[in-house]
């Protein structure tokens, strides 16, 4: 590879949404895209799933349609509906339909939060048919080669009422995400916040201690996202204890005893 090509690749990487790989996840994503396979991402809140998808969509040069799923999300929210516009009733595509028509990547974040009819509309897109039926318009859209469906969820919040059926899960290539290894997480937090690496290392060490409390006093461990928030406030001049209170205590629990336990761990780290 020539120096010119290397410099060009480096310039492209710098324009992409920042993401620090921790394994072969980028290669797997590219293979799934090239082979027209749907992809399922599993991992805790704030571990980098959404940033990863943004990074890969930009790297592949495809438009990204992100949907944050919730209890009221219906299939019509994804596919589209008739709306009154300028005195006329017109069909307006939803994000999934737009992604199919334009050959983009549709990312459904926390897909288990959506209503059951959402997974039903996804099924024809997740097998060799790659079809999207639009019953209200009578269309049957065939997904182009550059369309990709990506969904994610947090297994830690799964329960009997909110889980993907085995028949749905087995329609996807899947990969598990977790919080990055300490060194990589330090680099991420430093890059995103502007705080010095050694100071970020202390925050990452603290996060490891707090994550050990998951399942005991905490429902979820400290996310990398919260560490970035904390480091950003510290870099902006906020005292450490105030920054950690606002980002590593209050968002994690409302229980006074748990908050006091978190503060004790923080004080033991920073004095």
Automatic annotation (TrEMBL):
<dbReference type="Pfam" id="PF07728">
    <property type="entry name" value="AAA_5"/>
</dbReference>
<dbReference type="GO" id="GO:0016887">
    <property type="term" value="F:ATP hydrolysis activity"/>
</dbReference>
<dbReference type="InterPro" id="IPR013615">
    <property type="entry name" value="CbbQ_C"/>
</dbReference>
<keyword id="KW-0547">Nucleotide-binding</keyword>
<protein>
    <submittedName>
        <fullName>Nitric oxide reductase NorQ protein</fullName>
    </submittedName>
</protein>
<feature type="domain" description="ATPase dynein-related AAA">
    <location>
        <begin position="38"/>
        <end position="172"/>
    </location>
</feature>
<dbReference type="GO" id="GO:0005524">
    <property type="term" value="F:ATP binding"/>
</dbReference>
<comment type="similarity">
    <text>Belongs to the CbbQ/NirQ/NorQ/GpvN family.</text>
</comment>
<dbReference type="InterPro" id="IPR011704">
    <property type="entry name" value="ATPase_dyneun-rel_AAA"/>
</dbReference>
<dbReference type="InterPro" id="IPR027417">
    <property type="entry name" value="P-loop_NTPase"/>
</dbReference>
<dbReference type="InterPro" id="IPR050764">
    <property type="entry name" value="CbbQ/NirQ/NorQ/GpvN"/>
</dbReference>
<keyword id="KW-0067">ATP-binding</keyword>
<dbReference type="Pfam" id="PF08406">
    <property type="entry name" value="CbbQ_C"/>
</dbReference>
<feature type="domain" description="CbbQ/NirQ/NorQ C-terminal">
    <location>
        <begin position="185"/>
        <end position="268"/>
    </location>
</feature>
């Amino acid at each position: 590879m020539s120096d010119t090509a290397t410099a060009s690749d480096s310039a492209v990487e710098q324009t992409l949404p920042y993401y620090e790989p921790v394994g072969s996840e980028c290669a797997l994503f590219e293979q799934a895209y090239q082979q027209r396979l749907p992809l399922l991402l599993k991992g805790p809140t704030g571990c980098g799933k959404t940033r990863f998808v943004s990074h890969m969509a930009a790297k592949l040069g495809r438009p990204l349609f992100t949907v944050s799923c919730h209890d009221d999300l219906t299939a019509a929210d994804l596919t589209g509906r008739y709306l009154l516009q300028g005195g006329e009733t017109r069909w307006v595509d939803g994000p999934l339909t737009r992604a199919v028509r334009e050959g983009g990547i549709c990312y459904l974040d926390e897909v288990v939060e959506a209503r059951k009819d959402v997974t039903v509309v996804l099924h024809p897109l997740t097998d060799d048919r790659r079809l999207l039926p639009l019953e209200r318009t009578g269309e049957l859209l065939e997904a182009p080669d550059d369309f990709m469906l990506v969904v994610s969820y947090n297994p830690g919040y799964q329960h009997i009422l909110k889980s993907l059926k085995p028949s749905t899960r087995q329609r996807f290539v899947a990969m598990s995400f977790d919080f990055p290894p300490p060194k990589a997480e330090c680099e991420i937090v430093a890059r995103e916040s502007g705080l010095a690496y050694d100071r970020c290392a202390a925050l990452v060490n603290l996060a490891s201690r707090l994550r050990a409390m998951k399942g005991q006093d905490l429902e979820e461990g400290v996310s990398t996202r919260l560490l970035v928030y904390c480091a950003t406030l510290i870099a902006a001049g906020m005292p450490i204890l105030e920054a950690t209170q606002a980002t590593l205590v209050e968002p994690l629990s409302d229980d006074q005893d748990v908050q006091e336990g978190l503060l004790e761990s923080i004080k033991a780290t920073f004095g």
